[in-house]
Structure formats: C-alpha cells, structure tokens
Amino acid sequence: MRIRPGRRDERGSMTVFVVLWSLVIVMVAALVIDVGLAISQRERAADLADQAARAEAQNLSTASLRQSGGAVIQDDGCLRARDYLTNAASSIHYGTATLDTGLGNGGCEVVGNGPGNSVTVSVNLTYSPFVFDLFSGTVTVTETGTATAATGN
Question: Which of the listed residues 7, 82, 88, 97 has the most CB atoms within 10 Å of its CB?
Fold first, then answer.
C-alpha cells in the first residue's frame, strides 16, 4: 500500500466527532428536562399558595356578616390554609410543600381587620432536579398567593 505524500490517514476521525456531539446533545437534553421541572414546580407552588389563600379567605366571621354585611376573614392562625396544604401534599408527586416561615404568621398572614381584608400565603416547594442534583442538591421555590374577602351584591 502506497501512501501519497500530503494525505493523512483519517480513519476514526468521525468517531471522535460523534462522541463529542453525543455528549453535547445529552447535556442539552438534561438541561431541558431540569429547566422544565423547575418551571413546573414553580407553577405548582403558585397554585398551592393561591388555593391555600382562597381556603383561608373562606374563614369568614359570621358575626361580621350578620351585623354589617361585610366579609371579614377571621385570624385563627391560618388553620384552613395549613389544612389545605396538608391535604394537597398527597397530590405533589415530586417534592414537598410547606408554608414559608419567613412570612408573618408562619407562612400565612391576614392583613386588615375590617371588611375586605385579605390573606397572603407563602409556600415553599422543595424538590431535587432529575439530572443536575449531583451539583445542586435540592432546590426550593417560593411563591405567594393572596385572596381578598368579598361579598356579592
């Protein structure tokens, strides 16, 4: 076999190219999966916070309704919001949800003491990324939901 001058043996060069691009494609796919999970968990935390706030906003003072007709949320330590979050925990398939203790009354705060007052609930949702958990461990997203007491006319 004669080798012409100026020509190199390039056998196997495509193998290196394919292996490197395969690694890049796997890393991009892993990033897409984990970013999608992060977006999904943030939306889930926002939904839980909104629903817990609505549950607490339904805890109206019957005395206020009878006397003035105004809707006033009772401040009982946000028991309904806590109960909602406890019951909703079974629907969280990946991660755990808790009230954010950095807000007011342990994650739930009734604002105002008259008709039309509102409740704010902050929820932490903690989860582990599928692929990049080796680098970051668990991730916590925090979302806040607010509901206002109102009466219909």
Answer: 97
